[in-house]
Design goal:
Blueprint lengths: L13 H8 L2 H11 L1 H42 L2 H22 L2 H8 L4 H6 L5
Helix pairs in contact: 4-5
């Protein structure tokens, strides 16, 4: 799933385009006619629109990551590897449960855990 670029493409303020067409001596008069408050308000609105656009881009990127993760999860859910891993995990959990219910030394042997005592006594690889 590719979201691409946001549909919203922000342009510069119309006022900035107007100023580029005016002679420097005409800018203040045009600003007075249009209204400084209206120009400032439009600048604030453009800044808000840019912030919202950035939020939209961030959300789209996050959704893209989630879609990729879901696709991977769905593929993994349908493979023999998953079944194998589930069996291995189940066997490991069973071994841990047995280890907790019986003598610690013999349980460690069952699940192949070496302790410092094993290393000191030379029982490595037994």
């Amino acid at each position: 799933m590719d979201f691409g670029e946001p549909l919203i493409e922000l342009r510069q303020l119309s006022w900035n385009q107007v100023v580029q067409k005016l002679y420097p001596a005409e800018v203040e008069e045009a600003k007075r006619i249009v209204g400084a408050r209206a120009i400032e308000h439009n600048e604030m609105l453009l800044q808000e629109a840019e912030a919202l656009r950035e939020i939209l881009i961030d959300c789209q990127e996050e959704l893209q990551k989630q879609a990729v993760a879901k696709e991977w999860h769905d593929r993994m859910a349908q493979t023999p590897l998953r079944e194998y891993l589930e069996k291995e995990i189940a066997m490991f959990v069973d071994a841990l449960r047995q280890a907790n219910s019986s003598d610690t030394d013999s349980a460690q042997d069952k699940i192949g855990i070496m302790t410092m005592k094993d290393l000191k006594s030379g029982r490595v690889g037994e």
